[in-house]
Amino acid sequence: MTSICVGTGGKSVDEDKLVEAVGAAGLDTSYTVAIAEQLRNNNAMAYTAQVFLYCFTAICALIAVANVFNTISSGLALRTREFAVLRSVGLGQGGFRRMIALECADHAVRGLAYGLALALLVDYGLYQVMDISFEGFGIALPWGHIALSVALIVAVLVASTVYALRKSHAMNLVDSLRAE
């Protein structure tokens, strides 16, 4: 016995029950079996596409996280003289930590705002295309994915701030100012 989901409003339909109902109505059951096979193939293709898209999204997210850490790392390396000057004029450790944390938060908030705006624009464009093709197609924002994106951004923000503070703590800013 096989269950079929596609095209049934998300409800599972047993193939045997479908054939039995069509036979009871006096219709040819050979078409029903062909439709059931087509629905199974559609389910398999949809599952494959979802796996591919989730893997692609995960790879893109890993590249983005690596890019964030690379940007922070190179930004700290290029600004050692600036940090040394700020420390020499009286910027304390707490103020320095706050400055680095706010800088990382600024990058995260701007990236999240631009990314969400672009994603909503693309989502609306896809809705327009689907609405033309399928009658009664409604727009629905993926709130779960949006919440996951915000949580991922917050996690990357915390990790990048901790990384930046550890890296800056390891630098001897006074020696770097003397070297230049």
Textual characterization of the structure:
The chain has 180 residues and is mainly alpha-helical. It contains six helices and two strands. It has helices spanning 15-24, 29-78, 80-88, 93-133, 143-170, 173-179, and strands at residues 3-4, 13-14. Strands 1-2 form a two-stranded antiparallel ribbon. The longest helix has 50 residues, at 29-78. The model is unreliable at 1-11 (pLDDT under 50).
Helix content: over 70%
N-C termini distance: 77 Å
Rounded average pLDDT: 80
- Give the low-pLDDT segments: 1-11
Helix-strand sequence: EEHHHHHH
The total of beta strands comes to: 2
Largest sheet: 2 strands, antiparallel
- Order of strands, main sheet, comes to 1-2
Global geometry: rod-shaped
Radius of gyration: 27 Å
**Into which percentage range does the β-strand content fall?**
under 5%
Structural class: mainly alpha
The number of distinct helices, counting runs of at least 4 residues, comes to 6
Describe the structure in brief.
It is built from six helices and two strands, in the order E-E-H-H-H-H-H-H. The protein is mostly helical and 180 residues long.
